[in-house]
Amino acid sequence: MPKNLKYKLATPILEKLDDELQTRGIGMCPGCGEELAIRYALRVMGKNTMVFTAPGCSPSALAAGTDKGSTLGIPSMGCYMTNLPPIASGVKRYLKRKGQDVNIICIAGDGVSGDVGFQPLSGAAERGENIIYMCLDNEAYMNTGIQRSGSTPRHSWTTTTPVGIAGRGKPQLPKYLPLLMALHGGVSYAATATPYYMEDFVNKLMKAKSVTDGMAYLHVLAACPTGWRAPADSFMQLSKLAVETNYFPIWESSYGQFRFTKTPKKVKPITAFTSAMGRFKHFTDEEIESFQDMVDVRYEQMQLQCSRHTGNEEKT
Ligand SMILES: Cc1ncc(C[n+]2csc(CCOP(=O)(O)OP(=O)(O)O)c2C)c(N)n1
Ligand code: SF4
């Protein structure tokens, strides 16, 4: 085997997975990051699970199906953008009262989680509703045509933040939703992840599943080749570069104790990430500098949170 090729045994991951729960073909774009995240999340949750979702790309893999029914082998329900956590919480409470211990997982995009449906999510988090909530962050409202969301990064092109004479992409700084969620008192476990670091992602799903006394919130960077204007086979590479440039820090918080679970050995400049996508191709040197500044500030915020618990993260 060539020296520069590293491989890892898949056993530590596979032994934690239940059977494949997707039953038919799904309606997502080729190379979609959401699809892989959903597939593995459900295999960790297992058959004793109910899925709740809201409008966006994820229902294409969950509730809507491509023929006459659901694509799933477990119960699922499509909610509105504005009532996903309350519905899921109500079902969890009802089942608990009946003595049934069922995993309840909500799966939705950043537009639902951080913008349109943020108030009910924040309310459920503050009350400590015992549900698992997984936000698939593709950094825009993709399903309706790549509109900007609160999570879209500064200067990024979207169809509502065009690049031309009048505009230079999104002018505002983004909302950092995973930290906002982790700081809710009723969130017992919060974590960020990408499917590139699958073992880390699977371990975090296991921890989320084991929470019995509050909300478990997972924030997954779901690379979107279509909306990010990148080749269909690039999502793994983009997920890796997002971590290697500190664009998407990988951490977890257990009852308010933060720690990084992955940190790059050598941090790459942000251009390694931005130059791989059409949504940033208009960047001037000044815009790159301003983008790098946004990344540095966010990383420093997380360093501050994690500073009491450093030393046991894995170098990537
Ligand atoms: C209250 C409300 N506003 C707008 C819509 C239209 N709508 C359907 S899907 C969607 C985009 C959802 O974006 P996001 O949550 O980021 O998920 P993604 O499509 O990116 O996976 C919108 C705006 C809606 N269904 N309900
Ligand atoms: S638009 Fe993006 S997130 Fe939606 S299905 Fe296509 S690749 Fe996936």
Describe it for me?
There is one protein chain. With 316 residues, this protein is an alpha/beta fold. The chain is 33% helix and 16% strand. Strands 2-1-3-4-6-5-7-8-9 form a nine-stranded mixed β-sheet, with helices on both faces. The longest helix is centred in the last third of the chain and has 22 residues, at 285-306. The chain starts with 10 loop residues before the first helix and ends with a strand. The model has no long low-confidence stretch (mean pLDDT 92). Residues 55-58, 81-82, 108-112, 116, 138, 141-144, 149 line the site of thiamine diphosphate.
Q: Name the bound molecules.
A: thiamine diphosphate, iron/sulfur cluster
- How are the strands of the biggest sheet laid out side by side? 2-1-3-4-6-5-7-8-9
C-alpha geometry: globular
- CATH level 1 name: Alpha Beta
Gap from first CA to last CA: 21 Å
Assembly level: single chain
Q: Estimate the strand proportion.
A: 15-25%
Structural class: alpha/beta
Work out the count of structural domains: 1
What is the typical, i.e. mean, pLDDT?
92
Q: How many beta-strand elements? A: 9
CATH homologous superfamily caption: Thiamin diphosphate (ThDP)-binding fold, Pyr/PP domains
Give the number of helices. Answer: 10
Q: Low-confidence stretches at least 5 residues in length (pLDDT < 50)? A: none
Query: What would CATH call the architecture?
Result: 3-Layer(aba) Sandwich
H/E element order: HHEEHEHHEHEHEHEEHHE
Gyration radius, to the nearest Å?
Answer: 19 Å
Largest sheet: 9 strands, mixed
